[in-house]
């Protein structure tokens, strides 16, 4: 045990060291600002000023600070660095839950993107303009602004072929009932460099090809991409990278469900959970899929177990609110008394002023589904609200018009929402399964 006096001395030393670092940082920023005022065309000084602006919560201003320097030194290294600063700024605004801030940052970076598009820099930038446009397109996709997202993703794909971008474009075309276009994009995605390096992405593409082919009525043709997916994913699950292994197992679980191998699908999710026991981001993705799957299958024990694990892992409140909603809705649907877990989550997240606060109020019975729909501000929020209104009626025993309500959810703006996936699974029902058996050369635990 340390003596009290020694502890106070050490605390004092730590405070002094922190003050010294802050003084040095402030001095460095002051020098960089002076250098920038004297000559804004010097990349080093501009980059320092941009970095500090991001630290100060002024991320959207940082691209404008580096424009003059990038124009003056329009080589691959400087332009790549400017685009990297732009992406960090956009991600900072995204982490602050400010999509308008992301948009303003992207607009401020327009001169940088114009420089990145010069022919002499083609193939030399890392990152390039395609990645910046993809990031903006992904944000617009998540916000449900599908037309804007399509333009950004198309521009990104034209500049640099990417399976991930083509998969998102296919999701938009699927939403717009342009299934032939979606299938063409998905098949093109199979030859993209990132798809060939990423087994989970390739599995996702093959699964989506199978689903769309089945939805067109050709069950026989839908088996081939599904068989390819399960074979490749079964081999890829032995990777030494824990994050990659968790992603592979999650996609594998969905593929196994298509074969009707429900127990093996659940085991794949358990392996995904075991692969990353301390990574909250990966845990949230795995448990979200696990609880959503349990909800679709009416497995209250599995849903409650997933929620208990999410609480033990101390996941973000935003994730917990959604998981609690699914558990509460399933409890009501099965007419089972609540075990209290969902209620405790709702009680700790009421009135936080954000969309999840409105969802919490709905889950806790403080507002009606009509009030939830009325409070939605974005296409994605409207889609979520429509889903929970439909599930609220279902839980109350009112199944009249459920199919049309679920179709309205699918036609909404939230293309990549888990709620849309759940709605599709409920609407499709057993027809989603191709059926077994698994290919004979698939080796799984």
Beta content: under 5%
Number of strands: 0
**Averaged pLDDT, please?**
91
Order of helices and strands: HHHHHHHHHHHHHHHHHHHHHHHHH
Please give the alpha-carbon distance between the first and last residues.
49 Å
What would you call the shape? globular
Describe the structure.
The protein is mostly helical and 445 residues long. Among the domains are: 24-121; 203-277, Serine Threonine Protein Phosphatase 5, Tetratricopeptide repeat (Alpha Horseshoe), CATH 1.25.40. Helix 5 (76-95) packs antiparallel against helix 7. The radius of gyration is 25 Å and the shape is globular. Helix content is 73%, strand content 0%.
Describe how the helices and strands are arranged:
Blueprint: H1 4-38, H2 43-55, H3 62-65, H4 67-72, H5 76-95, H6 99-108, H7 110-116, H8 129-143, H9 146-159, H10 163-175, H11 179-189, H12 193-197, H13 199-215, H14 219-236, H15 242-258, H16 262-275, H17 280-297, H18 300-312, H19 317-333, H20 341-347, H21 355-363, H22 369-375, H23 379-395, H24 402-410, H25 418-428
In short:
The chain has 445 residues and is an all-alpha fold.
Q: Which characteristics define this entry?
A:
445 residues; Serine Threonine Protein Phosphatase 5, Tetratricopeptide repeat; single chain; mainly alpha
């Amino acid at each position: 045990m340390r003596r009290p006096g020694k502890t106070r001395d050490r605390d004092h030393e730590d405070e002094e060291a922190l003050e010294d670092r802050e003084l040095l940082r402030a001095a460095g920023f002051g020098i960089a600002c002076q250098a920038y005022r004297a000559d804004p065309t010097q990349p080093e000084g501009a980059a320092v000023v941009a970095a500090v602006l991001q630290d100060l919560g002024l991320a959207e201003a940082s691209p404008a600070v580096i424009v003059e320097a990038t124009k003056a030194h329009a080589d691959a290294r400087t332009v790549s660095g400017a685009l990297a600063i732009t992406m960090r700024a956009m991600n900072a605004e995204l982490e602050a839950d400010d999509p308008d801030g992301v948009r303003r940052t992207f607009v401020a970076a327009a001169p940088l993107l114009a420089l990145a598009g010069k022919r002499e820099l083609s193939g030399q930038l890392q990152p390039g303009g395609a990645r910046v446009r993809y990031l903006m397109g992904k944000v617009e996709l998540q916000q449900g602004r599908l037309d804007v997202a399509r333009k950004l993703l198309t521009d990104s794909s034209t500049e640099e072929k990417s399976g991930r971008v083509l998969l998102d474009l296919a999701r938009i075309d699927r939403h717009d009932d342009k299934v032939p276009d979606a299938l063409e994009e998905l098949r093109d995605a199979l030859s993209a460099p990132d798809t060939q390096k990423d087994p989970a992405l390739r599995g996702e593409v093959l699964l989506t090809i199978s689903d769309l082919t089945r939805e067109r009525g050709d069950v026989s043709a839908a088996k081939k991409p599904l068989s390819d997916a399960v074979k490749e994913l079964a081999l890829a699950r032995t990777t030494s990278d824990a994050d990659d292994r968790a992603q592979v197992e999650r996609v594998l679980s969905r593929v196994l469900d298509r074969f009707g191998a429900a127990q093996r699908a659940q085991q794949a999710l358990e392996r995904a959970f075991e692969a990353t026991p301390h990574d909250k981001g990966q845990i949230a993705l795995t448990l979200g899929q696990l609880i959503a799957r349990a909800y679709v299958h009416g497995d209250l024990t599995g849903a409650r177990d997933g929620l208990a694990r999410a609480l033990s892992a101390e996941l973000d409140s935003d994730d917990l609110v959604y998981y609690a909603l699914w558990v509460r809705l399933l409890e009501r649907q099965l007419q089972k008394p609540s075990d209290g877990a969902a209620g405790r989550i709702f009680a700790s997240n009421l009135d936080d002023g954000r969309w999840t606060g409105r969802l919490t109020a709905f889950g806790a019975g403080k507002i009606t589904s009509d009030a939830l729909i009325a409070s939605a501000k974005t296409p994605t929020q409207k889609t979520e609200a429509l889903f929970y209104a439909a599930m609220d009626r279902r839980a109350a025993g009112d199944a009249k018009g459920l199919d049309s309500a679920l179709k309205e959810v699918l036609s909404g703006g939230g293309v990549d929402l888990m709620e849309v996936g759940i709605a599709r699974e409920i609407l499709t029902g057993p027809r989603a399964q191709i059926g077994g058996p698994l290919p004979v050369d698939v080796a799984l635990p």
